[in-house]
Amino acid sequence: SQELEQSPQSLIVQEGKNLTINCTSSKTLYGLYWYKQKYGEGLIFLMMLQKGGEEKSHEKITAKLDEKKQQSSLHITASQPSHAGIYLCGGDGSGNTGKLIFGQGTTLQVKP
Amino acid sequence: GAVVSQHPSRVICKSGTSVKIECRSLDFQATTMFWYRQFPKQSLMLMATSNEGSKATYEQGVEKDKFLINHASLTLSTLTVTSAHPEDSSFYICSARAGGAGELFFGEGSRLTVL
Fold it and tell me: How far apart are CA B69 and CA A85, in angstroms?
């Protein structure tokens, strides 16, 4: 069965610092989704990547998908306290059905 | 952007009762919606795929008679937890796709507590 591994599990950074979260799939993905979640709340859509080598940016967040479509990274530049939360990567390995397998999440704390 | 809404956001019920959770796509039509469950400090686990006008498809290990799914319109899917027990207490969250291969949006989630 397909698995998604995220690293690190948790991260504490000083405000203004850059950080990267990684997501690795055991199988080639049809799509890779990044979400942010505050504990006990819904998921906020960040980005969707579908093509090998694709890179997308929104405000200070950049996500990349490698050529093999098995590895993705989420990079935050000049982090702010508002970036704190749980970051989840979700992979669609079932032919773009929309059924996602999620990584275990990365908890980010940003110290002012 | 596309919005998916869930109701109720929190529900507490007694053991043995049934609880219905609604998932609505507010500004788009969704022929397919997905239901996930999230236990505390764990990631999301897919429970079932809700198909408009047809039966839901369930993931392995999910009891279809316990978790009834109805997708009666293009904007509404419901999940009914029947004869709920304390072990069913969890955070239930739905997602919907805007367009055939488009972005997947999630609802705000519904926290079920069974006493």
Answer: 31
- State the average pLDDT over residues B15-22: 97
For residue B43, the chain A residue with the least C-alpha distance is: A104
Minimal Cβ distance to A40: which of B34, B105, B111: B111
| Cα atoms in the Cβ-side hemisphere of radius 13 Å centred on B102 | 16
Q: What values do phi and psi take at B24, rounded to 5?
A: -120, 140
Strands B10-13 and B110-114: parallel
User: Strand B90-97 to strand B76-81: parallel, antiparallel, or no bridges (unpaired)?
Assistant: unpaired
Q: What are phi and psi of B5, to 5 degrees?
A: -120, 140
Q: How far apart are CA B23 and CA B38, in angstroms?
A: 16
Report the mean per-residue pLDDT for chain B.
Answer: 92
In the structure, what pLDDT confidence band is assigned to residue B38 with cuts at 50, 70 and 90?
Answer: very high
- Kindly determine whether residue B49 and residue A102, on different chains, have CB atoms separated by under 8 Å: no
Q: Which residues contact B62 (CB under 8 A, 6 or more apart)?
A: B47, B48
